[in-house]
Backbone:
């Protein structure tokens, strides 16, 4: 199965405006393209004669021991893309042992998303992606909803002090959710009526003090999503983050940043093993997973590939995407002479074109 076929099927089945919302990014979409292209710049240098019959690709993640090394990155508005919505995605992720990061901008309340995941696997880990609200009481209420729902970690998006300018959405005039859809987690939050994209307000005032407040108030591990600068990775650890997610939001915020993969080694060096480093952006094949793990990631997220699976075939489509990536990754690991994820090391990734 080729993930490109599912993408094509999704493209045919979606309203073109909604397709553009998912596929598109900020500005000229240079970063969208670069995230994928970055993986093409590297090759894997295998080790041989490593002598092991069994492989174990499980990854220990905050609030998710033994998870798949491929997780579902948070993406908004699943009911817009398939009637099964977030519950379909959640069941698929749980069935594949993959962490689902469910979003603030979910079209299903977080409690229902977690319940759907647990209906497949009682131990399923669902993390909650938090967009900090300009009003602290609203942010705290969102966190409480995630905690009460049974989420096992919080993923705070830190790359969105303002919303990215999505060129295609601006051209298509896509600013509001169609009638019948709402950002359900925002219901009855102070000052945040549901019903429009713009009702998930972002806050340019968010700072490290908010991270401190969050870490103090919740017992859940707090990961920061959207770290690119190694100095911020260091700060994240100092402020009590339980993990750092290297991400440029799939090229949907700034169109002037490096590919996520190109930021990974420096962030991994800065974190120096103190907390897990994760990555999302441009992961499309099992060998991409291997390159990212070798360059210092504990696990990698997929945004658009999971959405294409959902739009094309609902729960079964998401499962196919996650199963294919994990299976291809396992095969790549075998070809690299690895038995576990930590067998992939930085010396096994080389720039294409030779180094002499
Ligand atoms: C349609 C769509 C919606 C997204 N919504 C969110 C969101 O609500 N919060 C967030 O932190 N990231 C969001 N993201 C970014 C993803 O979490 C992730 O960083 C990105 O999609 C990874 O790149 P990839 O699509 O190349 O895998 C969204 C991405 C897409 C494509
Ligand atoms: C308005 C909700 C945030 C969606 C988002 O983060 C994205 O589309 O990239």
Residues:
């Amino acid at each position: 199965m080729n993930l490109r076929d599912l993408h094509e099927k999704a493209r045919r089945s979606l309203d073109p405006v909604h397709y553009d919302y998912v596929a598109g990014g900020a500005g000229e979409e240079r970063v969208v393209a670069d995230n994928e292209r970055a993986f093409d710049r590297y090759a894997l240098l295998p080790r041989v004669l490593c002598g092991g019959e069994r492989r174990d690709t499980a990854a220990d993640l905050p609030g998710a021991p033994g998870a798949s090394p491929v997780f579902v990155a948070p993406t908004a508005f699943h009911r817009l893309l398939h009637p099964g919505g977030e519950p379909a995605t959640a069941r698929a992720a749980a069935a594949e042992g993959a962490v689902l990061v469910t979003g603030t901008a979910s079209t299903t309340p977080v409690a229902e998303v977690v319940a759907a995941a647990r209906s497949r696997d009682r131990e399923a880990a669902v993390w909650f992606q938090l967009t900090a609200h300009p009003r602290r009481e609203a942010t705290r209420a969102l966190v409480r909803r995630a905690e009460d729902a049974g989420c096992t970690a919080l993923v705070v998006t830190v790359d969105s002090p303002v919303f990215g300018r999505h060129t295609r959405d601006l051209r298509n005039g896509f600013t509001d959710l169609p009638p019948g859809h709402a950002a359900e987690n925002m219901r009855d939050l102070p000052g945040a009526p549901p019903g429009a994209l713009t009702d998930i307000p972002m806050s340019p005032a968010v700072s490290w003090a908010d991270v401190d407040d969050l870490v103090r108030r919740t017992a859940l591990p707090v990961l920061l999503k959207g770290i690119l600068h190694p100095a911020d990775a260091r700060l994240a650890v100092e402020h009590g983050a339980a993990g750092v997610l290297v991400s440029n939001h799939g090229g949907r915020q700034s169109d002037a940043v490096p590919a996520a993969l190109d930021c990974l080694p420096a962030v991994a060096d800065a974190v120096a093993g103190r907390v897990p480093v994760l990555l999302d952006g441009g992961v499309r094949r099992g060998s991409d997973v291997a390159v990212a793990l070798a360059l210092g990631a504990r696990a990698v997220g997929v945004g658009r590939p999971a959405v294409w699976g959902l739009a094309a075939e609902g729960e079964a489509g998401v499962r196919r995407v996650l199963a294919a990536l994990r299976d291809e990754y396992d095969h790549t690991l075998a070809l690299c002479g690895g038995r576990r994820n930590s067998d992939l090391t930085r010396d096994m990734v080389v720039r294409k074109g030779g180094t002499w």
